[in-house]
Amino acid sequence: MIRLIVFDLDDTLYNEFEFVKNGFKEVAKYLSNKYAIHIDELYKKMRELLNKYGRGTIFDRLCEEYSFNEEIMNLVEIYRSAEGKLKLYDDSYEVLKKLQYNYNLGIITDGKSSVQWNKIKSLDIENYFDKIIVTDDFGREYWKPHEYSYKKMLEYFNCKPHEAVYIGDNPAKDFIGARKVGFYTVRIIRECGDNMKLKEEKGYEADFTINNLNELINIIKNI
Ligand SMILES: [Mg+2]
């Protein structure tokens, strides 16, 4: 019988692109004030650079294109500390409300600690969960797929691995550690998200695949 349900955060419970857009808006505002270029133009340019090159070099390319003399790390900080409101997917609210009084609920999430905790605050979801682990709080080497956080989670609830399930969106890292520890695993494939097109390689796959979190209810009942 399942007693513990642990979720990934980004692109599992909410659309991380909303966070990215908030960050872009904040950086566009800062640069627009400083260089008198329209905020919409800068924002649009960042979206274009993201589509073309993916993450990682957007601010470098932007500064090069406009000859901005900026410390990239400063722009990254502005991006990271953007305070726009985030919102869970509708099915996340639905399923958390259904599960919260009958199961122990947790989150295990990767990413820079301060950024992840800001997201959690902005989403205003702490009340739904009994235990939230930001892997970065233990150190960079403990990010998924490291098993440590999954073991910590079991320990906290005094729970056996076969009583626990982990739900995530990224087959490159979400299910490896979870499986090694003995969790059941569920992959959510949504209409958008960075990882929806990633193929699962052998050993990386989840036990179940769903397209809507409400499908979890039946899976958990039948395990
Ligand atoms: Mg994710």
Automatic annotation (TrEMBL):
Entry keyword set: Hydrolase, Magnesium, Metal-binding
GO molecular function: hydrolase activity
Record has Transmembrane helix as a keyword: no
Domain of life: Bacteria
Needed cofactors: Mg(2+)
Group of enzyme by EC: hydrolase
E.C. numbers: 3.1.3.-
Pfam families linked: HAD_2 (PF13419)
PANTHER family reported for this sequence: GLYCERALDEHYDE 3-PHOSPHATE PHOSPHATASE (PTHR46470:SF2), N-ACYLNEURAMINATE-9-PHOSPHATASE (PTHR46470)
Official protein name in the record: HAD family hydrolase
Organism: Clostridium neuense
